[in-house]
Each structure stands twice: as C-alpha cells, then as structure tokens.
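dumping this here before i forget
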Amino acid sequence: MDTSALLTQARSGITDSSLWDAMRNGRVVPLVSRVTYEEFREKLGDPRFGISPAARETILAEYLSHAEYTRDVPDSGDTKCRDEKDKPFVDLALAKEADAIVSADYDLLDCNGLWDVPVLNVTEFTQRFA
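structure:
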C-alpha cells in the first residue's frame, strides 16, 4: 500500500476503512520498508489531516503490527516511475513479490501493466483481496 492509499482511508475514518479492516483481520499484510514507513509517518503529521501526534503514533504502531517490515530494499534496476517518490513502493513490491500495489496516486495507477505486480486502486484491491 502506498501512502496515498493509506491517507485516502484516513480521510474517511481510518478506524473504519476497508484496508484497515482487512489488515486487522489478517486478510491483507502490508509490506513496509524504512523509506515507505518514514513517508507515511511524515504525511500523517500534515496538518491537513488533523491527526494529533498521539493518534498518529497509535496509527503507526497498529500499521506496523500488521505489516511485514523490511528495513532496506534493493533497487529493482530499470523501474521507471513518473514520480520518483513512488520508486520505493515499486521496488518493495517487486522485491517481496507482492500480490498488488494499492494506490490512490494516478502516477502509479497509470503504470499498471508495466511490472509483474498489478497496481490497483483501493476499491479494486478490496474487491479482489479483502
């Protein structure tokens, strides 16, 4: 799951969202690296989301409790992304042979079919996997 998918869920009430429910029930195991975690942590602190520091830490702790964490991820080589900030998510998905990349970011969604891992929006993902 890239940060955009998680933040989209945060806007609609992170505790009741389909992605979080699927994680809590063990139907989905998010892949997380040091870089992807740091991006999510930083974005959760954005004042636009109105998430208090205490709530942010609770969200992050729960997220990590359901995740498969890989500190460092090898560069996949020829991965081309329109937005260079998406590369760590693609590299992680390819390295860990993910079932899908879940995103709300059109830069990533438009790349569906370029890699062995499909890129799905939240609705497509929950219909397929959750």
